[in-house]
Amino acid sequence: xxxxxxxxxxxxxxxxxxxxxxxxxxxxxxxxxxxxxxxxxxxxxxxxxxxxxxxxxxxxxxxxxxxxxxxxxxxxxxxxxxxxxxxxxxxxxxxxxxxxxxxxxxxxxxxxxxxxxxxxxxxxxxxxxxxxxxxxxxxxxxxxxxxxxxxxxxxxxxxxxxxxxxxxxxxxxxxxxxxxxxxxxxxxxxxxxxxxxxxxxxxxxxxxxxxxxxxxxxxxxxxxxxxxxxxxxxxxxxxxxxxxxxxxxxxxxxxxxxxxxx
Length: 262
Prior knowledge:
By secondary structure, this protein is of the alpha+beta class. It has six helices and eleven strands. Helix 1 crosses helix 2 and helix 5 crosses helix 6.
């Protein structure tokens, strides 16, 4: 328990890889910042880039714990600058990259904001149902946007791993951030996860496991078990953070309207 209104869970697994290139963590209670990064495949030093990004965001938020879209965007640029700095000082990993997703919550003002780059995702479930999610920065998503690909066929498609945005880019770095601060409601559940996690648990399964879960950690554990059972011997690293705001009493709730942003 982080505070009266907030509970949090975290998982991070190496999968079938030689090292874990995911990194994640959180700082604070009220306000709270959660962050998750995934070292981009095919670029040396992805694990260094991910850890550098997470540390940069948490340090930046700890120094200035504000929950606004402008501050979330500033944290994204701070993380990108930190990764670019590591590229310059570590010539062996001059092309390191990472995805990043950041969530800031302030229970005192019932406020939430998030930002991301790459294909690590944030989901918001309201009243047990998917209400908002981030948009992947990937080649496959670009094809979906242009009407040339099926959004429901991305899992397992090799083009979904080709990123069109990430940390570690000097020119053209364009993270996305919620345009407005989202008002928290009791029963909101947030999920930050790497692509190795969401590829093997679809959104309907996420909802069902949430509605049956007794805690944020048990929700994550159920989804992680699904990933482990279906991912295979070469399963990518998979990591996630879950945050619950208020009690999850789905027996007395009805569906809510989607939340804008993401």
